[in-house]
Amino acid sequence: MSKLPSDLQKKSTFHEIKNQVSVCNLYIEIIKKTLAKENIENDTVNRALDTISNSVKAIESSMQELKAQFVPVNMKTIYLSPLINDVFLSCVSYADGKEITFLNDVSENINIVADRDKLYSVLINLCKNAVEAIEQNGEVKIYTDSDSLYIENNGRPIPENVRNLIFEDGFTTKESGSGLGLMLVKKLLNSQHFDIELLSSNNCKTIFKIKNVTFC
After folding, report:
1. Distance CA 83, CA 182 (A)
2. Which of 11-15, 58-62, 164-168, 180-184 has the highest mean pLDDT?
3. Taking Cα atoms as reference points, which of 22, 17, 97 lies closest to residue 53?
4. Residue 135 CB: number of other CB atoms within 10 A?
5. HEC per residue, 156-194
6. How many C-beta neighbours within 10 Å does residue 80 have?
7. Phi, psi of 197 (to 5 degrees)
8. For the CA atoms of 168, 174, 177, 182, what is the dihedral angle to 10 degrees?
9. What is the three-state SS of 48-98?
10. Cβ pair 160, 200 in contact under 8 A
11. Going by C-beta distance under 8 Å and a sequence separation of 6 or more, which residues neighbour residue 76?
12. Can you tell me whether residue 211 is helix, strand or coil?
């Protein structure tokens, strides 16, 4: 029987992939600077570099999600708005030509007590789903109240007959989906003593509510 990889092996694998991704980012910048220095304008090359850059960002986000599952919970007081900005920057790579506005409606002086990596993974997952729900033009918005965090989009609504199933292991409405996304979101939030619910979903907007959070 084969053994599961140890924590050290997992960390080594993450580190090696991160190094290779960094090399990709470095050469993207080298190519862009070289083209600019030589005054070379080539739309095909520019589009190709943008596609590679977006793919690298998607890999980085996926690695962050995987890392969040294996690393012990580390609750700290962190600035929330910069974290959301990082999430939105990564989610641009999932837009794939859509005209999507990412709106961070969280005050810059709001802190949250959370595990940064795990919360980042949660928000990436929810925002990625939001982007996929938007047909062409739309908005993804994150905002707060006194003790909750809200993720809202105006894409396709979640069918009413499956709304009570979306956080279950293996449930998905996507043809190529694994059904792990929202289940892992709930698991990562529960590990921080947070919870999540689908607050509403209709033709106007879909809103997820992350509950029991502590702002300071």
Report:
1. 20
2. 164-168
3. 22
4. 9
5. CCCCHHHCCCCCCCCCCCCCCCCCCHHHHHHHHHHCCCC
6. 24
7. -145, 155
8. -40
9. HHHHHHHHHHHHHHHHHHHHHHHCCCCCEEEEHHHHHHHHHHHHHHHCCCC
10. no
11. 113, 114, 115, 116
12. strand
Residue type, 174: K
Two structure tokens written together for 79: 């600035």
- In this predicted model, what pLDDT tens digit does every residue of 107-136 receive, in sequence order? 999 999 999 989 998 999 999 999 999 999
Tokens of 168: 């279950």
* Relative orientation angle of helices 181-190 and 43-70, to the nearest 10 degrees: 50
Average pLDDT for the chain:
85
CB 135 within 8 Å of CB 173: no
